[in-house]
Amino acid sequence: MIQICREICFPEQWQHLASGGAQAFIYLTHAANTVEPAGVWRSHLISRAAENQRFVLAANAADPHQHCPSMIISPRGDVLAEVTSGDTAVVRSTIDCEQSGNWYLGQWRQDLLRLSYEGQGRST
Questions:
Q1: What local confidence, expressed as pLDDT, does residue 32 receive?
Q2: Segment 18-65, tens digit of pLDDT
Q3: Whole-number mean pLDDT of the chain?
Q4: Residues 22-57, buried b or exposed e (16+ Cβ, 10 A)?
Q5: Taking 80 as the threshold, does the pLDDT of residue 99 lie above it?
Q6: What band does 3 get if pLDDT is binned at 50, 70 and 90?
Q7: d(CA 82, CA 120)
Q8: What is the C-alpha separation between 47 and 75, in angstroms, rounded?
Q9: Residues contacting residue 76 through CB under 8 Å, at least 6 positions apart
Q10: CB 62 within 8 A of CB 30
C-alpha cells in the first residue's frame, strides 16, 4: 500500500492498512525542509516497519535539505539499504514478503482503542 508525505505521522493509518492485508508499504515524499529536525522521519519509518511487521520502501526527492532518507526497512526494523544525501541514487534490496507477520497486530488491545474509518459508504 502507498503512503505519502505527512502520513508518516499517523501510525493508525499504517496499522489499518496492515490489518487489511498490505504486505509492504511504499512511502513517497519530498521531505526537504531545513526546519525539520534530522532523524525524526527516519525513526518514524523504522517504527512503521517494526510495529506493523511490514517492509517499508521509502523514496525521497534528491535534495540537499532532505530530512527523510530513501531506504528499505525490514519487518523487524532492520535498515537494509539507505541513501541519506541529496544525491540521486538507486537503492536496491531483495525482499521476501513472507517475512511480514501479524504477531504484534494480533496483540492489539481493542478494548482500549477502536478505530473506525469511513469512506465510500462503509465503515471499517
A1: 81
A2: 989 999 999 998 888 878 887 899 999 999 999 999 999 999 888 888
A3: 85
A4: bebbebebebbeeeeeeeebbebbbbbbbbbbbbbb
A5: yes
A6: confident
A7: 37
A8: 10
A9: 49, 50, 53, 99
A10: no
The rounded distance, in Å, linking the Cα atoms of 54 and 100 is 5
Here the cell at position 27 is 512511502
CA dist 76 and 101 (Å) reads: 10
Tell the residue number behind the cell numbers 523514496, with chain if given: 59
How far, in Å, CA of 63 to CA of 47, rounded? 24
Residues 110 and 115: their CA atoms lie apart, in Å, by: 9
- Composition of the chain by helix, strand, coil, percent to 5: 25, 25, 50
